[in-house]
Amino acid sequence: MKRPGLYAMKTRRARTTTQRSSATVPPYASRVMHHAVTIFETAWGWMGIAVSEDRPGICRIVLPQPSRLAVEAEIGPWKMAKPAGANEQILREAQKQLIAFLEGKRSTLDFPVDLSIGTPFQRLVWQATLRIPYGRVRSYKWVAAKIGGQHYARAVGLALGANPVPIMVPCHRVVAHDGSLGGFSCGLKAKRRLLALEGTLSQLKS
């Protein structure tokens, strides 16, 4: 049985495009850096991933969008460079793993990520969230307890809202303490679909 889609699209071979731009970095970046960006098509829609030239690891993931142009808008006006060497390998491997994950053929992701864009607190939250396994959900209070106390639950939600690499840092697995969905920076429709893919949506309140 086919899973409901974010967009009614048939699975097609992933097509990759690399772009160049002379614009500045997004407001949440601290300095101008060049990033290699790959945009590709999946069974769920178009996605984008990026890696910086001076740090190994994926630093940005854009969840499925209805078009390549929509992904470009989400990635933002970074200075883009052609991928080469190790960065090209990282992008290729991340693309392959993400496509397989969304097709239900893979439950883990192990490509390198670069979380240096976050504040120290945000990085603590993201690292704690990385410990939530496939097919499980945890509450914002659970994550907060892992980094110092449940009173940080609201701040945890804000940090997860700034997560630059969703799916890899599985913020979709963090839900409200009462069993409701909570929030998701990419929209609750996307969160529901990811949880349905992992078989955990039925555990939550509708």
Keywords:
206 residues; alpha/beta; Arc Repressor Mutant, subunit A; 2 domains; four-stranded mixed β-sheet; two-stranded parallel sheet; 6 helices; 15% strand; disordered N terminus
Question: Can you describe what's shown?
Answer:
The two termini are 21 Å apart. The protein has helices spanning 68-75, 85-102, 120-129, 140-146, 153-161, 188-198; strands spanning 34-42, 45-52, 58-65, 79-80, 138-139, 174-175. 37% of the residues are buried. β2 and β3 (58-65) form a beta hairpin. It has 2 domains: 1-117, no CATH class; 120-203, Arc Repressor Mutant, subunit A, CATH 1.10.10.10. It is an alpha/beta fold and 206 residues long.
| Tally of DSSP β-strands | 6
Shape: globular
Question: What is the element string, with H for helices and E for strands?
Answer: EEEHEHHEHHEH
Low-confidence stretches: 1-32
Distance from N terminus to C terminus (CA atoms, Å) equals 21 Å
How many separate domains? 2
Percent range of helical residues: 25-40%
Estimate what percentage of residues fall within beta strands: 15-25%
How many helical elements?
6
* Rounded Rg: 17 Å
Please give the largest β-sheet: 4 strands, mixed
Q: Based on helices, strands and strand pairing, what is the structural class?
A: alpha/beta
Rounded average pLDDT: 83
User: How are the strands of the biggest sheet laid out side by side?
Assistant: 3-2-1-4
